[in-house]
From TrEMBL:
<dbReference type="Pfam" id="PF04526">
    <property type="entry name" value="DUF568"/>
</dbReference>
<dbReference type="GO" id="GO:0016020">
    <property type="term" value="C:membrane"/>
</dbReference>
<keyword id="KW-0732">Signal</keyword>
<keyword id="KW-0813">Transport</keyword>
<feature type="signal peptide">
    <location>
        <begin position="1"/>
        <end position="20"/>
    </location>
</feature>
<protein>
    <recommendedName>
        <fullName>DOMON domain-containing protein</fullName>
    </recommendedName>
</protein>
<keyword id="KW-0472">Membrane</keyword>
<keyword id="KW-0249">Electron transport</keyword>
<dbReference type="InterPro" id="IPR045265">
    <property type="entry name" value="AIR12_DOMON"/>
</dbReference>
<feature type="domain" description="DOMON">
    <location>
        <begin position="44"/>
        <end position="160"/>
    </location>
</feature>
<dbReference type="InterPro" id="IPR005018">
    <property type="entry name" value="DOMON_domain"/>
</dbReference>
<dbReference type="InterPro" id="IPR017214">
    <property type="entry name" value="UCP037471"/>
</dbReference>
Amino acid sequence: MMRLVLIFSLLLSLSLSSSAQTCSTDNSVSNNLTYSSCKDLPYLNSFLYWNYNSSTGSLQIAYRHAGVTTSNWVAWAINPTDLSSAMIGAQALVAFRLSNGTMRAYTSQITSYGTNLPEGKLKYDVSNLEATYANGTIIIYATIALPSNTITINQVWQGGPVSNDNPAAHPLASANVNSKGTLDLLSGPSATGNTGAPAPNVNSSSNGRMLASVLLRFSISTLCGWKLIHGILF
């Protein structure tokens, strides 16, 4: 009996872990595009998807920031200088939900600490900028024109509260302070080893729950079977 309990526990833990989101298992990013590369960012429940043409410098990105509310702003930025200052000099894409229920997505060039992220033109041309909010997740979509043959960029991502339809200062927790890094645009498929971000419009949490249900039924049927065998033989 103890062995069956252990088997059931193992199957249940596997099914629950299968529902955890990563950039290669969550399929909520679409925007009518399939992204060839994705990366799980190490802080702030964030993920980056991208397509990149090095000869033209065209970078299509989808930045997904989970675990937020309608009272939060999120941002993803390129810092063309370095990462020592992180924020200062960052060329940011900002998005949040307005009090009227619509999404605001815009560009902001960060020139000082304590900024409220005013709208402004970036050093890079940005097109197709838009954002969505659903189920506690904000996704920013954009196409950025980088210098041709760019290989790596310094990326910064962030999130904070919204006050009166304006971004307020972000927290100074460790995750917020460390949300920066270097991104190799030519690094290819997803960091988890898949051949790219999956096809859109599939709910990964539903997949996880479905698998959990199947495994649960399998475990119960197995348990019942063992009980029957035990009753016959012993």
